[in-house]
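dumping this here so i dont lose it
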């Protein structure tokens, strides 16, 4: 009996040790699939121009490099979609005019706004940079906070939906206004996973209306009703899967095995063999 108990206890301990590895291996494909991968830039589909306001912001996909030609002093706008659990990073490269044509230094800045046009703070990155008189380009970057699935109404947390990027020169001499320049912009995101999950979600992503179109079924008077057309860029939608499910399952299995092991230790050895039944 003693040998049988020792063997059963050893088997339970082996199961406890093997449970995380087995569950982790089973969940690894799902975790790998939940991490978005940046698609390579396609020269035919990548945007080659930028908008001049929030309403005319050019739509770009994450992982695709957008380019635009403009004049120094112009405001350039792009928009992209971000989903809950993502931490977007916006990178911009401004190619300046020839140094012989510039009068002095130039200061450039990128700003990111959410679907409600609230300016979002950069968690880290060079959001503003000054290019010297002999510099040929300037590189900017802004990494936002992790997009939350839900937030309080008074908070300024990033939420799923559309985000706007504005690129402009904040410090520019009058002699440099109007000189030709070009810009490159790309947005990539890192999937933070279950550590950024919250209890709640938005009913709809913050995607503002950007156009008006007539309904397909006009009224009897022929006038037809007008409906808002939302931006074609939408988050993919938060998946129900999260790596929190993995750790919850591991914790449940370990708790069950620990309960069985504790019961086997505390139930005792039963009736001694020297005491006859019914005594």
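and the seq i came up w/
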């Amino acid at each position: 009996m003693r040998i049988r108990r020792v063997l059963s206890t050893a088997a339970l301990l082996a199961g406890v040790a093997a449970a995380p590895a087995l569950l982790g291996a089973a969940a690894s494909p799902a975790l790998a699939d939940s991490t978005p991968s940046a698609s390579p830039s396609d020269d035919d589909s990548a945007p080659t121009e930028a908008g001049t306001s929030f309403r005319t912001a050019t739509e770009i996909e994450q992982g695709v490099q957008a380019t635009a030609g403009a004049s120094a002093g112009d405001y350039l706008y792009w928009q992209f979609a971000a989903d809950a659990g993502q931490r977007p990073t916006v990178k911009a490269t401004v190619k300046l005019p020839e140094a012989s044509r510039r009068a002095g230094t130039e200061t450039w800045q990128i700003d990111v706004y959410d679907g409600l046009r609230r300016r979002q703070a950069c968690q880290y990155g060079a959001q503003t940079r000054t290019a010297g008189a002999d510099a040929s380009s300037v590189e900017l970057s802004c990494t936002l906070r992790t997009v939350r699935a839900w937030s309080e109404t008074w908070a300024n947390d990033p939420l799923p939906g559309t985000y706007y990027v504005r690129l402009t020169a904040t410090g520019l001499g009058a002699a440099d206004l109007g000189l030709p320049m070009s810009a490159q912009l790309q947005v990539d995101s890192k999937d933070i996973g279950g550590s950024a999950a919250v209890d709640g979600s938005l009913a709809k992503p913050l995607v503002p209306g950007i156009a008006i179109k007539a309904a397909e079924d006009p009224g009897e008077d022929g006038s037809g009703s007008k409906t808002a057309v939302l931006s074609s860029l939408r988050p993919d939608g938060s998946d129900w899967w999260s790596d929190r499910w993995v750790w919850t399952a591991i914790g449940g299995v370990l708790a069950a095995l620990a309960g069985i092991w504790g019961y086997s230790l505390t139930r005792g050895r039963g009736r001694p063999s020297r005491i006859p039944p019914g005594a």
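The first helix runs from residue 2 to 34.
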